[in-house]
Amino acid sequence: xxxxxxxxxxxxxxxxxxxxxxxxxxxxxxxxxxxxxxxxxxxxxxxxxxxxxxxxxxxxxxxxxxxxxxxxxxxxxxxxxxxxxxxxxxxxxxxxxxxxxxxxxxxxxxxxxxxxxxxxxxxxxxxxxxxxxxxxxxxxxxxxxxxxxxxxx
Length: 153
Fold this sequence. Notes:
five-stranded mixed beta sheet
């Protein structure tokens, strides 16, 4: 267990909490500007995510490090195994401003990102995206953020 990695990860997760606390309205205005069902759903989703972050951050160091390798967070790399053909693929869940399909950096707001966020290692999920649905097992989770997220806009 690398103590400096744990401290850096903890700092980044605290920064995510602060960001959602202080910039939630601006974030929602940028990525879901119209009031309605979709925005309410996104607000609830962010509330659920931040509640999980608060619980993780309250853990002692051993539990905290375990969470970094068992729960998909913004900044986690997640390896999935497709049940239909056994192939595997890894994604990193990121803020929308850092999306990079060529690196498999997936926004937590994308259909795939929203369904993977908060998943646990070992879970099997049916992922539904515009192109169809497929079953995956969460093979590996590890917090991988090496950089800070950026402001929206």
